[in-house]
Structure formats: structure tokens, C-alpha cells
Amino acid sequence: MSVEALPAPVRTDFPAGFVWGAATAAYQIEGAVAEGGRTPSIWDTFSHTPGKVRNGDTGDIAVDHYHRYREDVALMAELGLGAYRFSLAWPRIQPAGSGPANETGLDFYDRLVDELLAHGITPVATLYHWDLPQVLEDRGGWLNRDTAYRFAEYASLAARRLGDRIGSWTTLNEPWCSAFLGYGSGVHAPGRTDPAEALTAHHHLLLAHGLGVGALRAELPADAQVSLTLNLAAVRPLTQDPADLDAARRVDGLANRIFLDPVFHGSYPADVLTDTAGVSDWSFVHDGDLAEISRPIDSLGLNYYTPTVVAADDPEHPAPRQDGHGGELSPWPADTGIRFLPAEGSRTAMGWPVDADGLYELLTRLRDELPGLPLLITENGAAYDDYSDPSGAVHDPERVAYLHGHLDAVRRAAADGVPVRGYFLWSLLDNFEWSFGYGKRFGVVHVDFASQRRTPKDSARWYAEVIRTGRLPR
Ligand code: FCB
Fold it and tell me: Which amino acid positions bind substrate, per UniProt (predicted)?
């Protein structure tokens, strides 16, 4: 047999077993907010409050995934996805915020998981992607320590019913947003604006994570994977001036170390406690909490979109706040003297600069600081002003370029020894983008919101080819 007749060796750009996925979240896609016994969440209340979401958009219908999940799983299969990251809606599963499970709510996830498995797609479930049952908000929400215990109860109910088929669980998605956008700048539900509350909520969310890990481990088989997803910031000082470096240290504390230290080392960073002493005495931290919070986890999920450039305030040239989250108030507690600036580079429709190096920087930092911990990119993607042209096609070359650049950063990081195990693109479908409503399209599948028609964009076909070949086009 000649050499030419031999099949070419399969070479891929990514590590063996690399997981190719896409991500969504319950409130952003499900709709059916009053069906199957679901009660309102804080996002129902918030989106129905005039002025909170652009154009008064709500998740009432969203992209109707609750009814169309079969069609959506078929789309995933067409893409060749190996895994699908979605979130469970707490108010569907435990509508009263405590007490027994609502079997009808669980039935929906049961059907979804079975449909995924029938198509060979691994389900990856997040327990909390921001939709706290409103009844718990009425009892104080994340300011009430008891909410953390309620979360653990909910985690048990979900794991008990679905743990035989879901092997990969994440407690919280981006607790930074829940605490700092929900309680600091108020651009997310529940829309409160008090830096002391943001820190209280932060701690109670981490406590919920720790208690949730314990609850999941008690219910799940020993080989189940339990994780947490953080939107860590690639913080860059504007210059090497000591004042700018100090601003970067402070933001790194509030964005990154305020999570990584307690979760992986069982302590809060001393400089963050000092920097925020004027805002909070941190008396909400009780004995034993940090041991709970630092229960071992199996991997860390990283969501990345754009870097964060900071500098010391320049009283001569005050700059408008530019941290990309909208709103008038700062989400950052005790951030006096810090300026947020846009990074260089082209911008997405969110106004977020495109900079894939930030992802590489974060991945290599995690490799160095948490040696051996498996990492997953649990979200990465971009919004652009996509439209369907007269032939029905949706051309999104900018999104393809964004994904290409960021996947190349993942490839480089893997080649440099980062234990990155998978990539979940945000998002499968255009959806309800929180306070920006339906105006920001992140999907690789276009959704005509009025007809609910799904049309894969060029980026969907591009991603399918990357998945099929395991390589980035040259
Ligand atoms: C992340 C959220 C996700 C989505 C993207 C664009 O912060 O986790 O739900 O809104 O941003």
C-alpha cells in the first residue's frame, strides 16, 4: 500500500477530548413564564418595571424555547455540538422558594435532557443564572443569609431528579453580576444601588455556592463534576504609573481575587477588606463560612468578552464611566479615584472592544495560580447588528472574526499548557439580553422574534466546521 493511500493522521488544534459547546440561560430563552407552575423571578419583576429594560422588553415570551426545545436541540445537533450549557429556572423547580419541588417544572428539564442525550449532546446545567424566585426577594433576596440555605435546598431537589443524567453541574453564573450589577449599579435585578449591599450579596452568593457544592455532592454520583462560573476581568492599567497600577490592583481585587481567594484558598484578600472598610465592616462573614465556600470543585468556568482598562482618576480630565455595563452608577464598591476606559480595538454592538489577548492572559494566569485545575470557557461571543437579507441569509463576518480570534487564544493557551477542556459559545440563539432587551443579538442562530423563526447565521456554519475538523481555518 502506498503512503498516499493511508488516511491522513487526524491533527487538531485543540487538546484531545476538547468539548465544543454553546450556552444559554433560562430567563433569556425559555419564555412561558406563567406555565407549569413557575412563579415570577426577580427578572420578571425587574423587566416589568418601567425604565429598567430597553423598550420595555421582558422575558415573557423570549425565544419560546420552553415549547421549541426539540427544534433547538435539532439545531444543536446540526452544529455538531458535543455539549450544551443551559440554566435551570429556580422558580420553575421550587416556585415557593423553599419546600418541595414542582414536578411539572422538573418535567421540562427532564424532557430537555432526554432530548439532548438522544442526540448525543452532553447536558451541562447551571443552577443559578440570575432568576431568583421573587418570593425570596420579598424576604430580602441575597441580603438575607437564609437565601444561601434555600439555594442549597433547591440544588438538592434539582440534583435528585436530574443527577442520573446530568453529570456536569455549575452552581452560579457570574456572581459578580448578581452582586455588583444587581446591588451596586442597579442595572440588573433586583435593581438596588448600595455598595454595602453589593458586598453583602456577594458574600451570601458565595456562601450559596459553597452550600450548593455540598448539597450537590450529597445527591450526585461520585464522578459528577461540580463547578462555578466567574466572569473574571482581564484588568490592565492604562500606564505603568504607580497610581494606575494601584487602580488596577484595586479592580483586580474587586473583580477577581474577591472570588478566587475565598473559593480556592478559604480567605478574603486583605487589601480588598481594607479598601472597602469605609463601605462595609464585613460582619456578614460568619465563622465557618469560608470553609464552606472553599469546598473543592472539579473545574472553573470562565466567561470572557472584553478586557478592563483602568487608571487613576484624573481630576483635570474627568472621563465618563466606560465599563460596558450601562447605567449611571458604578457597580464597584469603594471605587473612588478609579477611571474605567475603553480598550483599543474595534467594538461589538455592546460597545465592548474586541481583544482576544485578554482571554489568553486570564487563562495563563489561572494556569499559574491554580495549577492543574481544569478550566472551561463557559461563555464567549459577541453581539452585532445582524439582519436577515432578502434571500433569508444572515451574514455575520464580524462574529466569525471574533470567534476565530478568541478560539485562537484558547488554542494558544492550550499549547502553552493551560488545562482548558472546552469552549461554550455565547450564544446558541439570539435572546433577551438582560437590560438591553432584544436589541443585542449574540446568537449564532438568528431568531426573528415575532415569528420565532430560527436561521443559522454564517457563524453557525463556520463553528460547525471548526467542530467537525477540530481546527481553525487558516
Ligand atoms: C454574560 C451573561 C450572559 C449574557 C452575556 C452576554 O454576562 O452571563 O447571560 O448576557 O453576558
Answer: 28, 129, 173, 305, 426, 433-434
> Residues near ligand 1 with C-beta < 6 Å?
25, 28, 173-174, 177, 231, 303, 379, 426, 433-434, 442
Closest by alpha carbon to 252, among 365, 342, 407, 406?
A: 365
Helix, strand, coil shares of the chain as percentages rounded to 5? 40, 15, 45
129 annotated as a binding-site residue: yes
For residue 361, give every residue at least 6 positions away whose Cβ sits within 8 Å of its Cβ, in sequence order, or none.
Answer: 234, 307
CATH assignment, 3-469: 3.20.20.80
What lies within 8 Å, CB to CB, of 415 at 6+ separation is none
Please give the single-letter amino acid code of residue 471.
Answer: R
Looking at residue 256, the DSSP 8-state letter turns out to be: I
130 is an annotated ligand-binding site residue: no
Helix axes of 65-79 and 458-469: crossing angle, nearest 10 degrees: 50
CA 2 / ligand 1 centre spacing (Å): 52
What is the C-alpha to C-alpha distance for residues 209 and 203, in angstroms, rounded to an integer? Answer: 10
Classify strands 445-448 and 453-456 as parallel, antiparallel or unpaired: antiparallel
How much is the mean pLDDT over the chain? Answer: 96
pLDDT digits (tens, 9 = 90+) for 17-67: 999 999 999 999 999 999 999 999 999 999 999 999 999 999 999 999 999
Between the two ends of the chain, the Cα-to-Cα distance in Å is: 31
Grid cell listed for 318: 474627568
What's the pTM?
0.97
* Residue pLDDT, tens place only, 287-319: 999 999 999 999 999 999 999 999 999 877 666
CA dist 247 and 178 (Å) reads 23
Strand bridging mode 308-312 / 338-341? antiparallel
Q: Is the dihedral of CA 346, 391, 407, 253 positive or negative?
A: positive
Determine whether 344 is an active site residue: no
Positions of E strands within 221-374 = 225-230, 235-237, 299-303, 308-312, 338-341
Annotation marks residue 174 as catalytic: yes
Among 174, 197, 361, 398, which one carries the catalytic annotation? 174
Residue 194 confidence class, pLDDT cut points 50, 70, 90: very high
The 10s digit of each residue's pLDDT in 385-408 is 999 999 999 999 999 999 999 999
Sketch the domain layout of the chain as residue ranges. Answer: 3-469
DSSP for 155-172? HHHHHHHHTTT--EEEEE
Q: Residue 346: is the preceding peptide bond cis (ω within 30°)?
A: no
